């Protein structure tokens, strides 16, 4: 994915809020800051700004701060906030949108998460399936944590949970074409 | 045929017990169900963090294949796959969105096919007497904490049950003879999506779920999700260290407990492939008097 110039993408905060509405269907103006989202958030303890604060920051135009925050990557996407929001802001989908926009703007603060998602999707694009072992091994190499989760390896092997060779679907080209078509639609060429 | 079965990537790997036990139970009940040919990964949990169109297009190809192969419904065991495939089904109800999806997947979508979780199919489509007739080893005296996790019940547009206090699996467990405990963590997130990227955050959440299951008096936890299970089972040792207490809670898929109650062999169900030993508790249940 190409990097978008931050100054032209997010400097004008009204543009950013319009983009959230048009592309993702999220209207942050609906939020009246009741805080129900953050109160029920199981990862609030790991965030420097809670989801309620992030919404307020977007309302105030602090877009760059929001997109480069760690908090958006600490979200577990459990959707509890979206179920409980009395204004149907859908905070979980907002967080997801912010993760996508952070990647577009080249403002990702959590490189491990970005690497994880890139490797995951590369596996699906190549094989039509996720190859769990290949993805994990590459993640460990690329993030410099070579032995992360390796302690579970022997038991998982004995349990028949590890497959070292990736399987492919019959027609992996069909899935690769989905990726290509989405890129074309977004005006990106890989 | 009624149901097109969509196993998803986990069910031959980290969730192999789910795959084995679901297969065994489906076969045992002689259900009108067959695997969708050439299915692809639904994209969970990365496509929806990358591109909104990709996130509905990847699962939509499976809906299109299922339609072409003559299935009326898609049966999805994995909670993460269910959430993504259901989201694609919901998106395809909008004609504009559907056209966009069709263009990208290069297949037609009627918008008529329905995605359902294997859990709701087992509970709503198999009647009480048919299920009761299969039970050889009732789960008498087994106290289970039904843990639904997030992805079957949130957000509302895709939910197969209520988000705060779902009961589908509780009812199934009662029908198998077990006693579901009352507890408040049925749908609190176990942190599964963070275990690879932010393990410290993830394990704290895992520990909370397990702690409250234990406090509620459960002997074990039962789930419909391979992400939750591998998390609660594989990382239970780490969670125990965090909590400073031992838990010893076997984590079962609902299909494993169905299969056990039906009298199927433990090995067939994958019950010997757990991190927290899972066969002893079931073997200790009282054997019903024959006849």
Automatic annotation (TrEMBL), chain A:
What name has this protein been given in UniProt? Answer: Heterodisulfide reductase subunit C
Family matches, as InterPro entries = 4Fe4S_Fe-S-bd, 4Fe4S_Fe_S_CS, HdrC_iron-sulfur_subunit, Helical_ferredxn
Gene3D superfamilies, from UniProt? Alpha-helical ferredoxin (1.10.1060.10)
Which molecular function terms from Gene Ontology are attached? 4 iron, 4 sulfur cluster binding; metal ion binding; oxidoreductase activity
Q: Does the keyword 4Fe-4S apply?
A: yes
Q: Which UniProt keywords apply?
A: 4Fe-4S, Iron, Iron-sulfur, Metal-binding, Oxidoreductase
| Gene Ontology CC annotations of this record | plasma membrane
From TrEMBL, chain B:
For this chain, one GO molecular function annotation is: oxidoreductase activity
Spell out the coiled coil positions from the record. none
Cysteine-rich domain spans which residues?
A: 4-85, 144-233
Pfam families per UniProt = CCG
Concerning InterPro entries, the annotation shows: Cys_rich_dom, HdrB/HdrD_reductase
* Protein keywords: Oxidoreductase
Q: Which domain of life is it from?
A: Bacteria
Q: Which Gene3D superfamilies match?
A: 1.20.1050.140, 3.40.50.11810
* Name assigned to this protein: Heterodisulfide reductase subunit B
